[in-house]
Amino acid sequence: MKSLAASVLFFLACATAHGQVATETPAPRPADRIGDKVDPDAYAILSSARGLNTHRPMYLFPATYSSKFRGEQTELVGQLSGKWRVFGTDLFLAYTQKSFWQYVNGDESSPFRETSYNPEVFYRWELDRKRFNRWALDIGAEHESNGQRFSDPDNRSRSWNRIYVAPFQAKGRHLAYLKFWYRIPEGSASSPTNPNGDDNPDITDFLGYGELTGIWKPGGHSVTALLRGNPSTGKGAGQLTWMSPPLWGPMKAYV
After folding, report:
1. Residue 238, class by beta-carbon neighbours within 10 Å (0-12 exposed, 13-18 middle, 19+ buried)?
2. Domains in the chain, ordered, with CATH?
3. Could you confirm whether 191 is annotated as catalytic?
């Protein structure tokens, strides 16, 4: 509940700040800004109007299936994400929250099995779009955790901090977003005698040091592919999603 309240307060604070600057005269902006030229509904991460904007995809999956949990353990998976362009500058504050809710598991009071909290700050550097063929660059830092403590039951605390550089190109019907990161060291692994240590000492073995996201938008549809991993360990992940054209107002189907 405290985490949910913090999330709501974050968005309220951003909305309030937007209201405070709305009466100011906007500073002149170049006419070829990427955020002004690309439909913000097409690529959420590029929207950059004053006030709150979309950041990462927002969705709600009413049920999931895995061989590891069935029946009452099926989960509703939802993600909320937004960003605030700080007083019309190229600096952004962003927040993403993803939750896994076992809403039909009445025997255990319908618990949230896991929630991921991901605040970040980044600067968007938009190069001359003609000279650099519409390439731009995000430079930022982010924190991600599940809000647990190492002393909690089963020691389920998971968190890490990283800084990143992300060159990207939005051109026509496609977006290529390449993100490289460096994990900020946290010392030795957490233990009963060192609860403030590193909760994920081997996370880069699985996530590696970068990921590539490609989005293609044919005829109102949207197809997204994501690849990441660590070649030295042979571990990684891939994801392929499809989003329909609007079905009812802004609502779309997402698979």
Report:
1. exposed
2. 2-243 (2.40.230.10)
3. no
For tokens 């590891």, name the residue: 68
pLDDT for 198 equals: 78
Decide if 12 contacts 78 (C-beta within 8 A).
no
pLDDT of 76-105, one tens digit each? Answer: 999 999 999 999 899 999 999 999 988 888
pLDDT (tens digit per residue) in 113-140: 889 999 999 999 988 878 888 899 999 9
Residue 147 to residue 117: CA distance in whole angstroms = 7
Choosing from 143, 157, 191, 222, the catalytic residue is 143
pLDDT value for 252: 87
Average pLDDT over residues 227-238: 92
Q: What is the pTM of this model?
A: 0.76
Mean pLDDT across the stretch 48-59? 85
Residue 159 is a catalytic residue: no
SS (H, E, C) the chain: CHHHHHHHHHHHHHHHHHHHHCCCCCCCCCCCCHHHHCCCCCCHHHCCCCEEECCCCCEEECCCCECCECHHHCCEEEEEEEEEEHHHCCEEEEEEEEEEECCCCHHHCCCEEEEEEEEEEEEEEECCCCCCCCEEEEEEEEEEECCCCCCCHHHCCCEEEEEEEEEEEEECCEEEEEEEEEECCCCCECECCECCCECCCCHHHHHECEEEEEEECCCCCEEEEEEEEECCCCEEEEEEEEECCCCECCECCEC
Of 3, 18, 145, 174, the active-site residue reads: 145
